[in-house]
Automatic annotation (TrEMBL):
Gene Ontology biological process terms from the UniProt entry: DNA-templated transcription initiation
Family to which this protein belongs: Belongs to the sigma-70 factor family. ECF subfamily.
InterPro entries linked: RNA_pol_sigma-70-like (IPR039425), RNA_pol_sigma-70_dom (IPR014284), RNA_pol_sigma70_r4_t2 (IPR013249), RNA_pol_sigma_r2 (IPR013325), RNA_pol_sigma_r3/r4-like (IPR013324), WH-like_DNA-bd_sf (IPR036388)
Location of the RNA polymerase sigma factor 70 region 4 type domain: 119-171
Keyword tags: Sigma factor, Transcription, Transcription regulation
Record's protein name: Sigma-70 family RNA polymerase sigma factor
Family matches, as NCBIfam families: sigma70-ECF
Classification via Pfam families: Sigma70_r4_2
The keyword Transcription regulation is assigned to this record: yes
GO molecular function, one term: sigma factor activity
Length: 185
C-alpha cells in the first residue's frame, strides 16, 4: 500500500487528478471519522475534509515534501477541527498569513503544529483576567515599556510586572502542555 501512496503523491505532484481521487478515496473515511468524533457535526466535518484535501491539491507541487501523508492528514484534520471548535466556542483570531511567511521553509507538519500553538496562545490570552490581559497586550502587542504602562494606567511598576509575569506563567503552562500533547501524536 505504501508504494501506491508514494506513486499517488508523485502523480499528484504532476497534476494527476485520478491519483488525487485515489488518495482521497483511500483516506477520507478514517479522517472523516476522526473529525466527526471530535466535532459531532456532519456538515462541518465535510467542510473540514474538503478544506484539508483542497489544500493538498492546491499545494500539489510540494506534496512530495510530506514525509508521512497519513500523519499529515490526521494532523491537519486535528488542527482544522480545533480551529472549528475554537471559532464556534470563543471569539478570537490569529493571523495565519503571518505564520505562513514566518515558516515558509518549514515542513508542512511543523507549520500546522505552529498554527495550532498560536491558536492556543491567543485563546489563553483572551481568557486572562481583564486587567492582566490589558497590561499583557500593552506590553507585548503594543510594545510599551513597564514604565509607560504604569504611567498610563496609574499603576505601580511592580503591579505591571506582576501582571505580565502572571500572563507569561499561564502561557508557559499552555505551551508546555502543547508540547506534551504533540508528543503523543
Amino acid at each position: 500500500m505504501e508504494n501506491n501512496i508514494a506513486y499517488w503523491l508523485q502523480q499528484i505532484a504532476e497534476g494527476d487528478r485520478t491519483a488525487f481521487d485515489a488518495l482521497y478515496n483511500h483516506f477520507w473515511k478514517p479522517i472523516y471519522q476522526q473529525v466527526y468524533q471530535r466535532i459531532k457535526n456532519t456538515e462541518a466535518t465535510e467542510d473540514i475534509l474538503h478544506d484539508l484535501f483542497l489544500s493538498i491539491w492546491k499545494n500539489r507541487n510540494r506534496v512530495q515534501e510530506i514525509n508521512n501523508i497519513e500523519s499529515y492528514l490526521k494532523t491537519g484534520a486535528r488542527y482544522l477541527s480545533f480551529t472549528y471548535l475554537n471559532k464556534n466556542n470563543a471569539q478570537y483570531a490569529v493571523d495565519i498569513d503571518r505564520v505562513d511567511i514566518i515558516l515558509d521553509d518549514a515542513p508542512i507538519e511543523d507549520r500546522l503544529h505552529y498554527r495550532y500553538l498560536l491558536d492556543l496562545i491567543q485563546e489563553e490570552i483572551e481568557n486572562l483576567p481583564e486587567r492582566c490581559k490589558l497590561i499583557f497586550k500593552e506590553s507585548r502587542v503594543n510594545n510599551k515599556s513597564i514604565n509607560q504602562i504604569a504611567l498610563e494606567y496609574g499603576l505601580s511598576k511592580s503591579t505591571v510586572e506582576n501582571q505580565i509575569n502572571k500572563a507569561l506563567k499561564r502561557l508557559r503552562l499552555i505551551t508546555k502542555d502543547f508540547h506534551l500533547f504533540i508528543s503523543f501524536f
